[in-house]
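Students often ask what a holo structure prediction actually looks like on paper. The answer is less mysterious than it sounds. You provide the chain, you provide the ligand, and the output is a string of discrete structure tokens encoding the 3D arrangement of the protein together with magnesium ion.
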Amino acid sequence: MKTEIGKNIVIASSLLSQGRIVAIPTETVYGLAANALDPVAVATIFEVKNRPFFDPLIVHCPSADRIADYVESIPFWANQLFEQFSPGPLTIVLKKKSIIPDIVTAGLDTVGIRIPNHPLTLELLAKLDFPLAAPSANPFGYVSPTTANHVFEQLGGKIPYIIDGGSCTVGVESTIITEVMGKPTVLRLGGTSIETIEEVIGKVDIQTSSSKPSAPGMLDSHYAPKRKVMLGRPDKSSDTAGFIGFQNEIASIAKEHQRILSPSGDLNEAARNIFSVLRELDAMNVDIIYAELLPEVGLGRAVNDRLKRAAA
Ligand code: TXA
Ligand code: MG
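The corresponding structure tokens follow.
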């Protein structure tokens, strides 16, 4: 199959309306989208990504007033979060209506809903009369794509169209939150920080371990490049190792094998860069990638989560 890259929303919407899949830009990472109400179209996503059917997909809506079409009810805290952070890097898991096919939610009675913040994708969603189910547009388990080219490198030839929306401005996936035993609970750290969420709804629980059945698909070994990743700095010099640093290069590793996430120490900039830096180092002739953890605040927590999974 020939894969086209472009900004043509008419082509994209007509492919999606025919049950085909299209890669879409969002502010977090690129997604691999299909009509969320069409189980056959959604099955193609799993096939192309090589994704196990137990891993549920997020449903993307154009605006907050459409959410009630797909979920049974919206608790007060969820409304507050949607109001404050949508469109934006936040997914809320709520009890689903039967219009959402089981294949989307891996048989769960809940569905993850998100309003992505990207002008092209919002324009596309507004044109369609169905929402879009979309996981990140990478083969299962690999690093998420943050440019149209990343998608092309891995899925070129397997999908008809990639909407080119430039580089993702947030760079890590959405924060996922749900209600567990009456309490708002974060299932995945992501582009909306815990601190800003707690400013709106107060203290939340955090349950991001893969052992928790409430968060299927949160496998420890996710976001993994092909090369081995070790957390921290190397204890001896090496010509064959790579290094991902937060602000500064180190002396023990060849300069050309190093990438810095944010020289000025900006955690949002670090999040924006993490996946493309992992890809760059993965493409180099290095035998191991050392990666330094960031301060555990703001988006630093989401980046650390991705690094730990890449190293698992
Ligand atoms: O930023 C994002 O969220 C990106 C862009 C494309 O929107 N999407 C994304 O999708 O990261 P994906 O498929 O790579 O991750 C979706 C994860 C699942 O692996 C699962 O952990 C969680 O969302 N999830 C989805 N539906 C769920 C549900 N009903 N209950 C619990 N977790 C759910
Ligand atoms: Mg993913």
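The longest helix spans residues 267-282.
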